[in-house]
């Protein structure tokens, strides 16, 4: 289906027959990340120009599901995991382990991973950042964020997410 694909073509622009054929011809990998970690990363990368994390979160909540940036929209609205049968789901925080399995699964040597992937350091850093950032939020914002990301939290095993409660 390369002849149908252009630089800016979205999957939804094809008819159902073409979509089914294309999805059947590709290995589909979905990379998922705790939605709260995605918010933190977006804020720290300066994509939210808010003076505080709490203000940024309020802007995200006010923007809603349909007007929000792809950087913080719920994954289920972006990746359609209920409609697309992904061959492999890679969880951020377990990249080294997950990518090793994925590389073996597609027939590549697992030893070709870059050495700088250190999951334990990433997990510790995000745990610390999450605690700091979560403490800045009001109880109402925490509740609203949990509701905003409820489908992501239901679809993926983010058991240690601050939004899981």
TrEMBL record:
**What EC numbers are recorded for this enzyme?**
2.8.2.-
Q: What is its main location?
A: Golgi
Q: Name one GO biological process term.
A: dermatan sulfate proteoglycan metabolic process
Q: Which GO terms describe its cellular component?
A: Golgi membrane
Report keywords, A-Z. Carbohydrate metabolism, Glycoprotein, Golgi apparatus, Membrane, Signal-anchor, Transferase, Transmembrane, Transmembrane helix
Its subcellular locations are: Golgi apparatus membrane
One MF term in the entry's GO annotations: sulfotransferase activity
Q: Does the keyword Transmembrane helix apply?
A: yes
Specify one Pfam family: Sulfotransfer_2
- Which ranges of the sequence are coiled-coil? none
- Membrane topology of the entry: Single-pass type II membrane protein
- Of which family is this protein a member? Belongs to the sulfotransferase 2 family.
Q: What is this protein called?
A: Carbohydrate sulfotransferase
């Amino acid at each position: 289906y390369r002849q149908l694909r252009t630089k800016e073509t979205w999957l939804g622009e094809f008819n159902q027959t073409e979509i089914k054929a294309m999805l059947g011809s590709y290995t589909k990998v979905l990379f998922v990340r705790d939605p709260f970690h995605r918010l933190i990363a977006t804020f720290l990368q300066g994509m939210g120009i808010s003076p505080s994390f709490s203000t940024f979160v309020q802007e995200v909540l006010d923007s809603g599901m349909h007007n929000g940036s792809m950087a913080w929209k719920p994954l289920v609205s972006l990746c359609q995991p209920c409609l697309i049968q992904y061959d492999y789901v890679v969880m951020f925080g377990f990249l080294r382990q997950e990518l090793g399995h994925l590389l073996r699964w597609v027939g590549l040597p697992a030893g070709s991973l870059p050495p700088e992937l250190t999951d334990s350091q990433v997990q510790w850093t995000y745990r610390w950042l999450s605690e700091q950032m979560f403490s800045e939020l009001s109880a109402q914002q925490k509740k609203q964020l949990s509701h905003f990301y409820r489908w992501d939290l239901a679809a993926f095993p983010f058991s240690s997410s601050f939004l899981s409660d």
